[in-house]
């Protein structure tokens, strides 16, 4: 019976998996082959990626305690996949004050955050000085808080307004307190695709220029890709190849984060014929291929629980990924495009989810320094989450034969979520 299982593997797929597990670099053609696997080939791919993950980074699953802060949702770039942006005259447009930003940082610190992730729309009235001011304002009060901020799109906007040379501009932000840069605004790094998704957004060459310039001054970044819309396996493979090439030169990427397209509430799906996001198999294939293609250059593969949900995230962490991402505490960008996986995953919940799949939860810093390894659950710290009351659903009265009996409900319990 076991022989039948291994005999069912397509030889071409077996050859690529063997190469990847032997530590040989796989090609974009190999990645395309793997991105098309199904059935027994797909199962073998997921298993191979999980084995590679174990060899690359062991059994730890990391997470970071962080808070998202979107400082404005005003944006006129007009990306077709975005449900977050507003024009300035819309009722729910906002532009956070210093006090609001600091209150969110205070909340983050009280809940154990080591990082704030700051991104926003491209507000035409906000320039490089505003970005600089945000950093200085937060660092003046919270000097130890790591600031992970400003996508390459925001860097492009600020840089053009500043008139400075690019590396000088980036260094100016670093000197004001910038710790790392999100590698977002990447979507698919192919201008044919970008011209459909977001014709007004920075092009591939500019994204690469900004990321390389950041890495050249020691400003590290994440790397991302958005899949499940109009892209082909070849686009994904080329994008991964571009990232791998940058990493070989700079070593500046901290991780790779595949981001599934959230389709419900945006133009790209509703009016432009994009697919309705990735299937479960696509989600898992994407993670597994990322692990095998990017090793040994990028060894941290993150799952986005906001996009995938927790249970599929757990499957992805058994299919090549090793990082659960951040607690977030607040999340608007995916939620406003239709994601319903929540805004906050407390650290204690991450630890439980990790132990459910028999792995070791580890709190990390933004740049993957191990802060605490939680081997023994009895050593876990108490929750730092605000305690809220919830109603307990259930009958207050029920029939017992011909009599109706009242039930004294217990006092509502305190819960964290
Ligand atoms: S994705 Fe970013 S740049 Fe594009 S419209 Fe939304 S907020 Fe603006």
Determine and state the CATH class of the largest domain: Alpha Beta
Q: What is the number of strand segments?
A: 14
How would you sum up the global shape?
Answer: globular
CATH architecture name of the largest domain: Alpha-Beta Barrel
What is the residue-averaged pLDDT?
Answer: 94
Main beta sheet: 4 strands, mixed
Low-confidence segments: 412-417
Distinct small molecules bound, one entry per kind: iron/sulfur cluster
Give, in order, the helices and strands. Answer: HHHHEEHEHEHHEHHEHEHHHHEHEEEEEE
Task: Tell me the helix content.
Answer: 40-55%
The radius of gyration is 23 Å
Describe the structure.
By secondary structure, this protein is an alpha/beta fold. The protein folds into 2 domains: 9-55, no CATH class; 58-377, Aldolase class I (TIM Barrel, Alpha-Beta Barrel), CATH 3.20.20. The protein has 16 helices and 14 strands. The strands form 5 sheets. Strands 8-1-9-10 form a 4-stranded mixed beta sheet. Helix 7 crosses helix 10 and helix 8 packs across helix 10 (204-216). The radius of gyration is 23 Å and the shape is globular. The termini are far apart.
What labels describe this entry?
disordered C terminus, 417 residues, binds iron/sulfur cluster, TIM Barrel, four-stranded parallel β-sheet, alpha/beta, four-stranded mixed β-sheet
